[in-house]
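=== RUN LOG ===
request id: a7f3
mode: sequence -> structure
chains: 1
length: 349
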Amino acid sequence: MTVARNTVRSMAEVRAFTPEEGRPTFSATPDEIAAGWTTDVYFVKTREILEKSGLAQTRVTAEIFARRSGVLCGVEECRRLLAGLPVRVEALPEGEEFSPKEVLMRIEGPYGEFGIFETALLGILASSSAWATAARECKQAAGDHPMVCFGARHVHPAVAPVMERAAMIGGADGAACILAAKWMGREPSGTMPHALFLVMGDTVEGAKAFDRFMVPGDPRIVLIDTYKDEAEEAIRVAEALGPALAGIRLDTPAERGGVTPELVQEVRWRLDQAGFGKVGILVSGGLNPQRITDLVRAGAYAFGVGSYISGAAPIDMTMDIKEVEGKPRAKRGRLPGRLPNPRLRPLLP
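=== RESULT ===
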């Protein structure tokens, strides 16, 4: 069903537009994105010119491709953005790996109805696919070991759920961001911050309080690098919590040398020696695929990855018109006409 939308149609509207004053953040709302207020302004100019020339309903076929390989994500948001418009859309499913120049999405319909959204579509796919790709790299390094996204603190809160959802599409086993986890039908994953122990004054007391007050299903994984030597603190916590302790988390800051394979090996050895072989070691802080590989060999069992995922460079996306009124047409340097991709699946209507 086609839905009428109140989208920006002229430069006069652009000049008259005033953002809402007093809002708590500068991020765009879903309504503002759907209205076209996040688009590059030249698409508004194009729309106005085509409408005044009687060409806004010209039917075109446009294709989106990427400059490099990766893991596709953002398709569902694109579907929601285009839903209700008089367009037909095919796309590669989310989570699929793609090659450079492979057609990832094909849109057919009146250009005046969907061209205004090119900026948003490309931005959604570029960022989400980059985050999903980085997460896939980390998960491949972790193998069967859990890998959770801890990246929300590195991005604007308006996009944190988008980023951590993309990480899970890419392969992350969970996310710390509450909204991201809920979007995926999961419960958020997380342990405890240094703030808990700094306020309580002792790691063991903080661990006991966590065990006493948190719901039974929440794994007892205790951060052990706030006050004392990590190996010493791991044993203290293991003795205090006994069988309730599922694991300890190492997040030693760079100022203290960070979490090294040697540190993991020592903590693992001392836990085993003291009879706590079932206590796992979760590592977080500045991880990347190579460090994860090294730490798996050293004895770590799970990983919390933040900046490597959240800081992934966007994967450049391009949308080209390939047909106009059913006839092949493209700018120089591009092949006119549809490029075949049997992996595309219907997305809309």
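=== NOTES ===
The first helix runs from residue 11 to 16.
Residues 137-310 form a domain with the TIM Barrel fold (CATH 3.20.20.70).
=== END ===
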